């Protein structure tokens, strides 16, 4: 059965290959606007004939909409390159628990407030004076990591610049879910999830 990760990487690589094939033709315009228009049309055709897994249909629909409304501003070639690079690195990570520990250690070294020994089951407020902060409920931190691997999803409540967070996560080959403010149990934080084997069910947080 195809996973979301497999589906999104297959799509990104096919798009990049189509763009490369287009660029190899000597009479093509290679501006950002022309490339974005090409990829938008390519995505629309792929969606119409259901060329790729239905797991990414929602993403495809959004990117087509972005391409049509924003043109080069949608940065579709960059999007596919970032997906390919970030996902392939994460898929190869076989020690996710160890990566999470290194990720947390780097945050501590960067003066984040990191709390791992508190049970989080109801709405809470963290008095961190606006500092970058991360909280993982103790039962998840102690029970969802085994033999350097993550065996159950882990929710992290995070307050930080999202691109700074994305950079550290990518450095340690971790895929984080998109931040969800409504799902957070900590005020002024967003909820992010890490899944076993980096198998996110939807598009992960991407680097810009």
Automatic annotation (TrEMBL):
Query: Pfam families recorded for this chain?
Result: DUF2913 (PF11140)
Give the source's domain of life in one word.
Bacteria
Protein name (Swiss-Prot/TrEMBL): DUF2913 family protein
Which organism is the protein's source? Shewanella sediminis (strain HAW-EB3)
């Amino acid at each position: 059965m195809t996973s979301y990760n497999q589906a999104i990487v297959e799509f990104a690589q096919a798009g990049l290959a189509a763009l490369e094939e287009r660029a190899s033709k000597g009479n093509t315009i290679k501006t950002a606007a022309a490339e974005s228009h090409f990829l938008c049309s390519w995505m629309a055709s792929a969606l119409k004939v259901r060329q790729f897994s239905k797991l990414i249909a929602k993403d495809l629909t959004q990117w087509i909409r972005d391409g049509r409304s924003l043109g080069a501003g949608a940065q579709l070639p960059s999007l596919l390159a970032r997906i390919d690079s970030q996902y392939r690195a994460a898929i190869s990570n076989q020690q996710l628990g160890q990566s999470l520990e290194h990720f947390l250690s780097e945050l501590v070294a960067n003066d984040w407030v990191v709390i791992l020994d508190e049970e989080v089951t109801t709405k809470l407020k963290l008095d961190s004076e606006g500092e970058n902060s991360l909280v993982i409920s103790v039962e998840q931190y102690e029970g969802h990591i085994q033999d350097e691997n993550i065996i159950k999803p882990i929710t992290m409540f995070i307050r930080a610049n999202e691109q700074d967070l994305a950079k550290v996560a990518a450095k340690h080959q971790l895929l984080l879910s998109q931040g969800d403010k409504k799902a957070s149990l900590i005020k002024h934080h967003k909820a992010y999830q890490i899944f076993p084997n980096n198998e996110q069910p939807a598009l992960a947080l991407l680097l810009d």
